[in-house]
Amino acid sequence: MDRLDELAAALRERLVRDAGAGGGSEAPATERIRALVQQEAGMLDAPAREELARRVAERSFGLGPLEPLLADASVDEIMVSGAGPVWVERRGRIERTDVAFSSEGELRHAIERILAPLGRRVDEAAPLCDARLADGSRVNVVIPPLALDGPALTIRRFRRRGLTPDELVATGSWTPVLHTLLRVAVERRLNVLVSGGTGSGKTTTLNALSAFIGAGERIVTIEDAAELRLQQPHVVRLEARPPSLEGRGEVTIRRLVRNALRMRPDRIVVGEVRGAEALDMLGAMSTGHDGSLSTVHAGSAAEALRRVETLALMADVALPHAAIRAQVADALDVVVHQARRADGSRAVTCVGEVVRADDGGAELREIYTLRGSGDRPRWRTPLRPELAEVTP
After folding, report:
1. How far apart are CA 210 and CA 85, in angstroms?
2. CATH topology for the 62-158 domain
């Protein structure tokens, strides 16, 4: 930390002490900061005083040393662990930065400034918390005693504009023929499930797929934290709500999926299925809401089907496993698997159509596979007539 950072931290503490003792002036905060900088650092030249005032303001109202990273459009994720160096993800690669909090106390102050406006808190009784910044960026906080090296803060940056299908082709995530296949699948109202690991680009792909939905359709989106940015004129956005400090008022994804069925949707888009809502989503897909889209965490396209089955069983409705497997086969049409490769790039590595197995359950039949970044994709003629005319 340079001398200006040290001085900014000291001046912020002075402001806090003055405010706590009732000795602060009634002037706006920015004016009080400038007056304090002039009083305590008047020997600095004008540019240095301006920079010092900016850093004091960052520590007082923003997220301190993280502000330059939040302003950097190339940063996709910010990872903080105690007072150690801050790490970021750029273009799929993790990099160490020169940014650091001066102390764990300063980091806790930044966390409190994120959570307080949302009515959330972290303490020893509840040391885990998920939240969202004003710009839509997702925040996860873990504090001691669970985080052994000091508070851990992770910020997944929100992009105001998702990548379009054409841009995904230009970056190599999709091939031109795959673009056509996915467009036809969405336009012909096949139910599509996007699978992949954390940070593989599932939400980006889901957002791009939504671009193929017609402008005349009513779409209901359901998310844990609102990230999707659909361009259609008739979109209803629903977001789950965590319990309050008193443990009341929680609204789950499952409840929102059930409610969406009463909202006359042409399509339902579930940002991610993580629990019992999988059963309600399958029910919606197989009872007239064709063309719905969702994502799920899975290591492969075939595993995605098993994952959905497992999540549906969490609904605890005493359905036999065979009935759940049959419902998966009825509801899902196409699985698109997204992966992050060793070089940090993201690409669709598998597309499969869901077919009924001999035992009545769901089975995946791969129609597109891409093994490595330099490999040519392998195609297999789909069984579904909607897709058969597209593949090479």
Report:
1. 38
2. Beta-Lactamase (3.30.450)
